[in-house]
Specification:
It is built from four helices and 43 strands. The chain is mainly β.
């Protein structure tokens, strides 16, 4: 009897795989039990075990970073999606128990909802919001490189690390790469829904370009994640009911997910489309509605696709005074905003940044200091001139570019050469020496990068422009240039961003190009980069990669 009872207990602890559930739902999650050369044994949370092989184009990710199959270890917790009974995507987590808080530390992951100087509010994967604080000791990392906190955006996916379990002060912020950016906004007619592979097919495809819808191919198949919400008329709908909306127009914000489009937010048109390009005059948060300068009122909701700084953000990022492109849905005064594209941009991404752009005459240069005279400061997208002097400081990490010699120079050369002279001296007169001029990009009063020019540019025709790089090329006749789409110019007369209806061709000869606070070369720009620039006609003077 004891032997029989022991055998029964042993048998009761053995779980047998459900041959249907993962294939019906299209995903599996649990722990790696064992792995072979091209197969893996996965134990689901309920204890059932499945042996699975991989699709030829399977994607592997660990902690949001692309990895190889060899990097996955037995015991690691994973989530995988299935395609034709094979794994086509598998995501793992470097700790076997992600919820475990190690001694003296904790981790939070989420999407930045708002930034207010040293206060960062994130939305957690479970939907809750938490607020934490930065300090001068907080380290920010992006793609393994140390970056300033000022490059943070609303909508960035981040991992926050803390030195103490009870602390609300962040010790380290790891910023996710370009995958958080919205690649495009599409519009199309829903024709088929494939719940097995999480994909939809659309016809009459159009893309938002230069302030209007432009035609694409007649049909396109786009993948989605079941965790991405779908709305219509302000109401959230289930993916199980998506098939009942065939023939309806769908708006989608998509991101680049390992080389393919993936839907990040989806809204189904409920009634009739109207398009507006105007400034938001006022917002009523009690009723979740805003009024445009043309006195048109539109409601918004959690499903509204809101794009700001090229990122998908929540409705709370909509601000009075913003210049917007809006896709309305409804009739008369009863309209809902399906898409709100915010044109606003500036040198700083938020009020946590303290970057400035100066233009002026180099009156004095010593080993660690520069004195500007008759200088201009870019203030709210416009040059503001000052007759005073301005002291700025530099160190050995400064980037200095001599536009005459077409090369970067060292701080020693900057200090020892004749970029600033006493123009009233006989030495300057005998050697025909004059003060040089410069565009200077600073972090506070510290110079991060400086572009030296022998002759001063006229700033009268210069304007602030924002947009997205379409392509970069080294032209055989004119050198490096870029095509910029979805561009808008700042109008001081209208106090608004004015959208362009065509792409711009911008030349980069002698331009100062800044990315993450440092100077880069034109060939380091790439398609999809968002830019804020000062230009004179087709010639860029300063380009800041956002």
């Amino acid at each position: 009897m004891l032997l029989a009872l022991t055998l029964m207990l042993l048998v009761s602890n053995i779980s047998y795989a459900d041959p249907i559930t993962p294939y019906r739902e299209g995903f599996i999650e649990g722990f790696i039990k064992s792995k072979g050369q091209d197969k893996i044994e996965i134990e689901e949370y309920d204890g059932t075990v499945h042996t699975l092989s991989f699709d030829d184009k399977a994607v592997f990710v660990i902690d949001t970073v692309q990895a190889d199959f060899e990097d996955f270890k037995p015991g690691m917790e994973i989530y995988a999606t299935l395609k034709r009974r094979k794994i086509d995507y598998m995501e793992g987590y470097s700790t076997e128990v992600p919820g475990y808080i190690p001694e003296g530390g904790k981790v939070r992951t989420g999407v930045i909802k708002s930034i207010d100087r040293n206060q960062v509010t994130i939305r957690l994967p479970i939907g809750e919001e938490e607020t934490y604080y930065t300090s001068p000791a907080t380290i920010a990392l992006k793609k393994g490189k140390n970056v300033p906190l000022s490059i943070l955006y609303e909508g960035d996916s981040v991992k926050l690390l803390f030195d103490e379990v009870e602390s609300t002060t962040i010790s380290r912020i790891e910023i996710e790469g370009d995958s958080v950016r919205v690649k495009d906004i599409y519009r199309g007619v829903l024709t088929t829904v494939d719940t097995l592979e999480n994909a939809i097919t659309l016809t009459g495809m159009q893309v938002f370009r230069n302030g209007q819808w432009q035609d694409l191919s007649s049909s396109r198949r786009i993948f989605y994640s079941a965790q991405v919400p779908v709305y219509t008329g302000g109401a959230k709908i289930s993916y199980n009911n998506l098939k009942y909306y065939k023939g309806k127009t769908v708006y989608m914000a998509v991101k680049d997910f390992f080389g393919r489009d993936q839907i990040e937010r989806m809204v189904i048109k409920n009634q009739y489309e109207s398009i507006y390009s105007d400034k938001i005059e006022d917002i009523n948060w009690y009723s979740d509605a805003f009024e445009l300068a043309n006195h048109k009122n539109l409601a918004f909701n959690d499903g509204t696709i809101v794009i700001k700084n090229g990122r998908l953000v929540n409705k709370y990022s909509i601000n009075a005074g913003s210049d917007v492109f809006v896709v309305g849905d409804g009739t008369g005064n009863q309209q809902m905003a399906n898409v709100v594209y915010i044109y606003d941009t500036d040198i700083n991404n938020s009020n946590a940044g303290q970057f400035y752009l100066y233009e002026g005459r180099l009156d004095e240069i010593v080993k660690d200091k520069v004195v500007l005279k008759d200088f201009c400061l870019l203030n709210q997208n416009e040059w503001e001139s000052f007759a005073d002097e301005k002291e700025l400081f530099y160190d050995s990490d400064i980037n200095i570019y001599d536009s005459e010699e077409d090369r970067q120079i060292t701080p020693l050369e900057f200090y020892s050469k004749h970029y600033a002279v006493d123009e009233d001296s006989s030495y300057a007169e005998e050697n025909n020496l004059n003060d040089w001029y410069a565009y200077i990009y600073t972090d506070g009063d510290r110079i991060a990068a400086i572009l030296l020019k022998k002759d001063r540019d006229s700033i009268m025709g210069q304007r602030a422009t924002s947009g997205t790089v379409e392509f970069v090329e080294d032209h055989s006749l004119v050198g490096w240039r870029i095509s910029v789409r979805d561009a808008s110019d700042w109008s001081s007369r209208k106090d608004a961003w004015m959208a362009k209806n065509t792409s711009l061709m911008i030349h980069l000869q002698d331009a100062m190009i800044i990315k993450d606070g440092a100077m880069i070369s034109p060939q380091e720009l790439k398609a999809g980069d968002r830019l804020y620039m000062i230009r004179d006609g087709s010639q860029a003077k300063v380009v800041i990669v956002k």
